[in-house]
Design brief:
By secondary structure, the chain is of the alpha/beta class. The protein has ten helices and eleven strands. Bound molecules: guanine.
Length: about 300
């Protein structure tokens, strides 16, 4: 058996086109355009890459972007004051503070200072609580992207056994909540789980979000399962040759041993080109949702969950 490769890049491109169309229609109706503020603190190279991609996608969709960069010497009080300013700015409908933050900043204090109505990351305590209690909320972008792919691949998820590997606030935990909301039986493995393989072997759906390259082996996958790989790990790839400085070239791999799993699963996301592009598309979607709520417009039907 060879699994179907789930093309997250194509699905995300379609979603971004739909968003662009909806944004343009709302602008023509005189509602203005959604605005997204992206706040980056410090000079973490991975965060810089992610923020650049998010800003580019925002602009391509016709959403106004406001980019703010602070040195990592910024104080917590300064950041809190800045978030309050964005909360009060009517041209800003969504606010994203890129994580991780420098160690001297209290991450939760910053996240919980964002107005819940502008919390397009879905990290604010109010949105986390609303998701956990089945109320409408902003949903973190990566799990929302995974759920979109799963529903399209499998239809109704009711009764399926879903194992989520990884329990972060950004991916694993909200993913488990979403799967529970879709009536799955949810198993969660984390770094203290004694036998992760045993939990994965039961799963009709595997969501791998541990951040450990190749953690999930091919023989852990139940034949016919659907595998969503959230991991984006850069590893040495000596087979690609050397860089000018003599270090080996690198490549991106997921948390799943793809070459083995693809022979057992029914469907699987690749890395890159699977979940990653969906995360950015879902950020745009959440920004449009925030805009619609704030201007009193119903979410365009083609974007409804
Ligand atoms: N860092 C890694 N992933 C994310 C994300 O989805 N949102 C924010 N704000 N920071 C991140």
């Amino acid at each position: 058996m060879t699994a179907r490769i789930i093309d997250g890049r194509a699905r995300a491109a379609q979603l971004r086109t739909d968003i662009k169309t909806a944004v343009s229609a709302m602008q023509q109706d005189g509602l203005g355009v959604p605005g997204l503020a992206v706040v980056l603190i410090g000079a973490d190279p991975a965060s810089e890459v992610y923020v650049r991609s998010k800003l580019r996608a925002t602009q391509e969709a016709g959403i106004e972007s406001f980019s703010h960069h602070f040195d990592d010497t910024v104080t917590q009080a300064e950041l809190l004051a800045f978030v309050h300013k964005l909360n009060a700015d009517p041209s800003v409908h969504g606010i994203l503070v890129q994580l991780p933050l420098p160690a001297h900043i209290d991450k939760l204090a910053i996240i919980n200072a964002i107005s819940p109505d502008k919390d397009v990351d879905g990290f604010h305590l109010e949105n986390v609580g609303r998701l956990a209690t089945g109320q409408s909320s902003f949903v973190p972008c990566t799990p929302l992207g995974c759920l979109t792919l799963l529903r399209e691949e499998l239809g109704d998820l009711r009764g399926m056994v879903a194992t989520v590997v990884g329990c972060s606030n950004i991916v694993g935990h909200p993913m488990a909540e979403l799967l529970l909301k879709d009536d799955c039986t949810v198993l969660i493995a984390h770094k203290f789980t004694r036998d992760t393989a045993a939990l994965v072997r039961q799963a009709d759906i595997v969501v791998a979000a541990a951040g450990v390259p190749g953690l999930i082996k091919g023989d852990w996958i139940k034949p016919g399962a659907c595998v969503i790989d959230v991991g984006i790990n850069r590893v040495p790839a000596p087979e690609k040759g050397l860089n000018a400085d003599g270090t080996p070239k690198t490549k991106l791999v997921g948390d799943v041993d793809f070459d083995a799993a693809v022979t057992v699963a029914n469907a699987i996301t690749p890395v890159p080109g699977g979940v990653g592009p969906m995360t950015i598309a879902c950020l745009l979607l959440n920004t449009v949702t925030a805009f619609c709520t704030q201007v009193g417009r119903e979410q365009p039907a083609n974007l409804a969950a």
